[in-house]
């Protein structure tokens, strides 16, 4: 999958607000204990780096010194991400070492994570299949690394009034179900798990004995904020396109639903909540965990 810079920029602020800070703090504690045990440098690999937002977000929330290993299949995005992450700093203000590599994610996960303290990815695992997730969990456990996977869709979204109460439409559930079915269509050699990805990953990690924590990380978009409304309207168009592609015979009704929802959103009151979940896994075999 290739994502445009414009889409990554549009979602960046919503991503930042949504992330589950409680898991960031647990991860930071774990990594501090590793440094206290004698390590002098933390090695952190970001899979599917994209714009570099994940590293930019995490670097100041984690101890250091840090060496970020960025990996993506889009060379142009990766070059810009490398510059962004190199301009970040750890919680003590030290700039990280940054290296990057362009290639196929399946090949990279197959190589394993020996020497890595953290494997992380954002808005990625709902685009892959279960075999990839099993391999990720196996390689993570073998390396004794921590894992932080953020902003994976959970399959739910809601329209809310200004007071946070649901504003229902008779066709909301149908369109949501069609969109979620479309999410599971082929996006690679294995297809994609969509909302099932995070629960499947948690199950694989727990089977291997890792300590797993999850926390909700929903987008909460306020329609009276211009940037949020622009993202909400882009989401609506994406939901419409996917639902129609999934069920062409229902296109007319889906478009009518979209028209009602667009008119409601353009009033600029209320908001949309889009469900995501963050997953943290820590190795259970180390005495510091």
TrEMBL record:
Record-linked InterPro entries: SAM-dependent_MTases_sf
GO annotation terms (biological process): methylation
Claim: Methyltransferase is one of the keywords in the record: yes
Keywords: Methyltransferase, Transferase
Gene Ontology MF term list: methyltransferase activity
Domain of life: Bacteria
UniProt-recorded name of the protein: Class I SAM-dependent methyltransferase
């Amino acid at each position: 999958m290739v994502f445009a810079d414009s889409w990554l920029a549009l979602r960046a602020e919503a991503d930042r607000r949504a992330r589950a800070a409680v898991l960031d703090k647990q991860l930071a504690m774990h990594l501090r204990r590793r440094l206290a045990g004698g390590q002098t440098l933390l090695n952190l690999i970001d899979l599917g780096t994209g714009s570099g937002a994940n590293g930019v977000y995490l670097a100041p929330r984690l101890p250091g010194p840090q060496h970020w290993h960025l990996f993506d299949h889009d060379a142009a995005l990766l070059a810009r991400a490398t510059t962004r992450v190199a301009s970040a700093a750890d919680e003590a203000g030290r700039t990280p070492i940054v290296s990057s590599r362009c290639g196929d994610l399946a090949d990279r996960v197959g190589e394993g994570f020996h020497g890595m303290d953290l494997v992380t990815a954002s808005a990625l695992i709902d685009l892959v299949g279960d075999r990839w997730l099993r391999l990720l969990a196996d390689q993570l456990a073998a390396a004794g690394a921590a894992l932080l996977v953020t902003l994976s869709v959970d399959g739910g979204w809601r329209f809310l009034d200004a007071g946070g109460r649901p504003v229902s439409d008779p066709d909301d559930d149908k369109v949501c179900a069609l969109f979620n079915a479309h999410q599971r269509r082929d996006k690679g050699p294995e297809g994609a798990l969509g909302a099932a990805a995070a629960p499947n990953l948690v199950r694989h990690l727990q089977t291997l004995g890792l300590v797993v924590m999850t926390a909700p990380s929903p987008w909460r978009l306020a329609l009276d904020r211009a940037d949020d409304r622009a993202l909400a309207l882009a989401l609506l168009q994406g939901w419409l396109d996917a639902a129609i592609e999934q069920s062409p015979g229902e296109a007319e009704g889906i478009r009518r639903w979209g028209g009602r929802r667009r008119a409601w959103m353009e009033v600029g009151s209320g908001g949309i909540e889009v469900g995501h979940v963050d997953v943290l896994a820590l190795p259970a075999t180390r005495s510091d965990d």
